[in-house]
Design a protein that fits this description.
The protein is an alpha+beta fold. Helix content is about 40%, strand content about 25%. It has helices at about 5-15, 25-30, 65-80, 115-120, 125-135; strands at about 40-50, 85-90, 105-110, 135-145. It has a four-stranded antiparallel β-sheet with strand order 2-3-1-4.
Length: about 150
């Protein structure tokens, strides 16, 4: 599948990113246009909702509980595709720069672009992603690479 077709597929599956919960098309392009063998490290910051927002599901769980449901699928799936978490920990405080307020920081590493894409193309992961969206009031994900 060429990168343009894959980008359209990812947007179809996850949405256009206008909600701030998933990458926008140009952000997907940043990954898709990386060198195939280049490692990818993602630094994730999460702020949980007090109550998860499942829209029409009517589920009443905390954002933290919804995120746990996401993590129960995402962690083993990430390992299966070749990725690994370097750190998953509660956010404490800012040391330099503007103070920020997050609940959790997770640093995930992928050996190459395909491992990252294998995660996002996995049907079970896609189904679990709804828990991440419901859980998070705010997210920030930074890309680092070698």
């Amino acid at each position: 599948m060429n990168t343009e077709t894959l980008q359209k597929q990812l947007v179809e599956w996850y949405g256009d990113g206008s909600n701030g919960a998933v990458p926008r098309p140009e952000q997907w392009a940043r990954i898709l246009h990386r060198a195939p063998g280049q490692a990818i490290t993602l630094i994730n910051f999460f702020k949980f909702r007090e109550e998860a927002d499942y829209k029409d599901r009517g589920a009443h769980v905390s954002g933290s509980e919804a995120f746990d449901a996401y993590a129960a699928v995402s962690i083993p799936t990430m390992k299966r595709v070749g990725g690994a978490f370097l750190l998953v920990a509660p956010f404490e405080a800012s040391l330099i720069g503007e103070d920020e307020d997050w609940d959790l920081v997770a640093i995930g590493a992928y050996p190459n672009r395909q491992a990252f894409l294998d995660l996002y193309q996995d049907a079970t992961y896609r189904a679990a992603f709804t828990h991440r969206t419901a859980a998070c009031a705010l997210q920030k994900v930074l890309i680092a690479g070698t």
